[in-house]
Each structure stands twice: as structure tokens, then as C-alpha cells.
Amino acid sequence: MATRFPFLATKDCTSMTQTPASGAVATSTRQFLDPRDFARSLIQRRSWFIAFVVVDILVIYAVATSDVLIEAWNYIWVGIGVTIQITIFSFLLSIVIGLIVALGRVSKNIIIYNITTFYVELFRGLPLLVIILIFAFVITPGIIELIAGSGDLPANAAPNIPFLDDLIQRLVGINPEVIETTRLRARDIDQVVRIVLAFAVTYGAFMSEVFRAGIESIGKGQMEAARSLGMSYVEAMRYVILPQAIRNVLPALANNFILLLKDTSLASTVAVPEISHLTRQYASNRFRYPEGLLILSAIYANLTIGMSLGVIYLESRLQQDKRDD
């Protein structure tokens, strides 16, 4: 009997049972776990994880028994929520951007193709730190000035685009009672919003290449068959090509999510209160760099390795599904 796991063996146990009514023969098959094969497979394929668990336990014990490490943990861990928030919102926006750009990259329209290619090459070529600084201190203030007018104008001066000015003020939480008498200012836009936009636009360029590779991995016969059934190009892409392409690129998307989580540490350069920024504050205020960096490393390691295990599981399931197909 075939099995997915090398350390699972199959043993057939046939028992002859005579019943008074029918005299039928019952046959049962049971699986048992071979401890030696299981241990061998665990050591060969999961030794790294065992080592990580041991180190993790030692770190947890050190934190629990040290007042200094407990203080560092209490100061830093509150930034985990901000880190995850930035990661999730940036990732979702980058998926939308990447999918739209990928469709442009496979388009036969020369103008659309060149515009999307320019975007991809530009943002893949710029360092992420540079993009963050540009979004934080150049693009966001420039857009606000375009909408609300120059900061040198009086506070009660009419904005250039009143509708957008009022809408953005409401979105960022300005008191509705004063919106009519004030203009949007650059400082009204939180740094977290600027960081999310910077990450989304940057990773959108990388995501677009992932989606493009997934779309091009689907045979041309799929599109031709869909069109021969009367589907339009959009319908064929939506119902035939994209479902298969997205399934193929799920592991790559998950890996990009992990990379994005690690890159959120760059948000500390613009004083976003995520775990890296809080670590810098703690270490510089108390001159305890080893303790702060130990806690920071432990947090990132647990987050990323936990997600990596999820990616491994996802890849194994997809491979199993392909074998079943």
C-alpha cells in the first residue's frame, strides 16, 4: 500500500473469521509507525528545526530568568503589531499592483507593455531604503501640496482640489467639525501610511514578475481552447489562466511575504514604531545593545521560521495535488 511518508510501512493482517450467518471472510489492513525510519527521516530532514527549537527554548529561559531581558522584551514586543500591520497591508496592496502590472507585461499593446516594463525596471533597480525616503519626504508632501496648495498659504485658504482635500482629511481622522475650515497638511499623513505605500509600490514590481512567470507557465493551448469556446480575452484570463497561474506561484508569493516582513525593519529609518525602531530606542537610551538585539533577533526568527514552515507545508500540498491530478 503506497504512502506519502517514507517512515510509514504497511502490514497486511488477514484474519479468518467464520460467522454463523454468512461465513464471510474479513480482511483488515493496518498501518504502523516504524520508529527507526521516523527518527532517521526526522534527523535527515528536520535537524535544523530541532536546533532552532533548542535555541529558542534557551532564549526563552534566559528572558524568563533575567530582569534586564524582561525589561527589553516589555519595551520591544509592543511593536510586533505595527510590524505585522505594515506587512499585511503592504502585501495586499502589492498583490493588486503586481497582478495589474503583470497583465500589462503580457499585453500585446505596445504602450501598456512599455509603461509597465518601465515601472518594473525602475522600482526593481532602486534600493528599497531610497524608495522609502522618497515616499516619506518627497512624494507624500508633493501630493499634499498638489491637493491642498502650498504650505505658505494661510490655513483658511481654499485647497486646489477641495473634494480630495476633504476626503483625505476624513480618512486620516481629522475632526469633521474643522475639515471645512482647514487644509490638509503633510504632517497629517502618518509615517505608517507612507511606509505602506513605499513597500506596496516596490514589492508590486517584484510581484508582477512572479505573476507574469505564472501566467507564461500556462500553455498557450489553454488560452486558445478558452477562446474557441467563445470566451473573450478577459474571461479566458479570469476563469482559465489566472486560477492556474496563481496556484503555481503561491509558494513564491509566500516567500515574498516573508521577505517583506524582514524588510519592515527599514521603517525604523523614518521613526515608525515597529520592533526595529523600538530596539534602537531601548538600546540607545539604556546602552544595552546586546539585550535589545537578542530580543529583536528572537522575534524576527520566530516570525520568519514559523512562516517558512507554512511555505514548506504549502509546497508539499501543491506537489501532492499535482501528483494526484
Report on this model:
- With 325 residues, the chain is mostly helical.
- It has twelve helices and two strands; from the N terminus they run E-E-H-H-H-H-H-H-H-H-H-H-H-H.
- The protein has a two-stranded antiparallel sheet.
- Helix 2 (67-76) crosses helix 12 (289-324), helix 4 (110-125) packs across helix 8 and helix 10 packs antiparallel against helix 12.
- The protein is flat and about 80 Å long.
How are the strands of the biggest sheet laid out side by side? 1-2
**Tally of separate domains:** 2
State the helix count: 12
- Helical amount: over 70%
Distance between the terminal alpha carbons, to the nearest Å? 19 Å
CATH architecture of the largest domain: Orthogonal Bundle
Q: Strand content of the residues, in percent?
A: under 5%
Mean pLDDT: 83
CATH superfamily of the largest domain: MetI-like
Q: What is the general shape?
A: flat
Global structural class: mainly alpha
Largest sheet: 2 strands, antiparallel
Please give the CATH class of the largest domain: Mainly Alpha
Name the descriptors:
325 residues; mainly alpha; MetI-like fold; 2 domains; two-stranded antiparallel ribbon; 12 helices; 2 strands; 4% strand; flat
Brief description of this entry?
The protein is mainly alpha-helical and 325 residues long. The chain has helices at 35-64, 67-76, 80-105, 110-125, 128-148, 162-171, 176-179, 191-216, 220-228, 233-263, 275-286, 289-324; strands spanning 8-14, 27-33.
